[in-house]
Amino acid sequence: xxxxxxWQRYQDWLYFHExxxxxxxxxxxxxxxxxxxxxxxxxxxxxxxxxxxxxGAIANPDENRMVGHYWLRxxxxxxxxxxxxxxxxxxxxxxxxVEKVQTGAIHPPxxxxxxxxxxxxxxxxxxxxxxxxxxxxxxxxxxxxxxIDNTDPAGIDRLLNHxxxxxxxxxxxxxSKSGGTPEPRNGMIEVKxxxxxxxxxxxxxxxxxxxxxxxLDKVAQSEGWLxxxxxxxxxxxxxxxxxxxxxxxxxxxxxxxxAMLEGAKEMDDATxxxxxxxxxxxxxxxxxxxxxxxxxxxxxxVLPYKDSLLLFSRYLQQLVxxxxxxxxxxxxxxxxxxxxxxxxxxxxxxxxxxxxxxxxVPNFFATLIEVLExxxxxxxxxxxxxxxxxxxxxxxxxxRKALYDNQRDSITVTIPQVNARTVGALIALYxxxxxxxxxxxxxxxxxxxxxxxxxxxxxxxxxxxxxVITVLQTEKTPLSLEEIANKAGAAEDVEAIYKILRHLSxxxxxxxxxxxxxxxxxxxxxxx
Length: 528
Fold this sequence. Notes:
Number of strands: 16
Radius of gyration: 26 Å
Largest sheet: 6 strands, mixed
């Protein structure tokens, strides 16, 4: 396509939202009008599906749940007055609590103000808050946030050591829908012990965000924690940033959560338009379907050209891959759907994997995130008439052109600046695109059976560990791995038993491995 035709295609397919100042350019995706026309029936169904979902239809049939994260930014859409009132009241309670913390009306026993936050969560209860903190937290927030988003002991130690001198002024926010998810539960227990080690009453530093009546809720109530905020069963983890999960940590950092909600609401309104060309989420879903032939045959590479949006690709990785990565469709047919997502930031990746994107395996399409405002204030010139921001813009445009010239497709999303409204809009845009795309390929975007299977497998390993230790405690002489497996009633699990024992031995847990470590089958095992 020559330059004139490409310029016309750009104009024909450019989406602009005046209220948000957001542009979406899909002109460098090579679909044609016939392709768009062929998908029209699927989109008609997708628009209808989305409308039913928002009215309160059971959109997650596996768990018999509604899917209502859209109501969080427009409570009037909730299907019952009680839900509307609960959403409104929760936001008011969050704002009242945060004001008391920031003014010192709520303060720790040994300090006049809280200075820091430890946020303990996993998956959507961590990725959303982490992304928003990186994108929007002021340089000098009223409370500085730190995250425990894993069950890695060294990672927990590093954070607690870093905060050792500030622990007495650090608020702890524990986020877990059930209260039984291992990672946040483990993090909470470890942090509790750290507070006890400094003779600090953990309850006077702790906030729970959890389902009403959950194990965590019961603990918070019985111990008298500072506050509890609700998690709803109709909001999934990966779409929970606009709930208490994301709003409490954000508001404590001084982020304008009302503006974030308003930006999401504006984008929701824009993506309700039942017309592909005038609906930015539909344009994304169309592009994804085209790129991967409706089967996820190409990866989505996300390159935000702004340091503050560094974690956007990581946030999208969960939103897209957990929602769309499904073995079966809604009819029970095996389909192996999904879109792999990876990325970091521009222009850092001009010097990393863009070489492969330009000349290597053409198994991807790119999404470039552009921010028009370089910085708050004027930029100095680096060269005559040229600033650092000009270079960044040039790198983005150059990458887009170089990719297209070599038959690599790309999407460009442009926002005027990184602020609470635009970040809220970006989150909503991709949530809506995921919902529409899921309908196009006939899958359930709102459950995660693979994640649950992984949790069950991990629990089985821990159960096996208990059995193995019981066997070793009853034996007087060292045993081979096979002997241990047989006595534990787990003859098929020798490899897992070996890895359990190797881990325990490496951590001075009383397990002694005798023999050639390079030949596991020859080892004898006992307790010290």
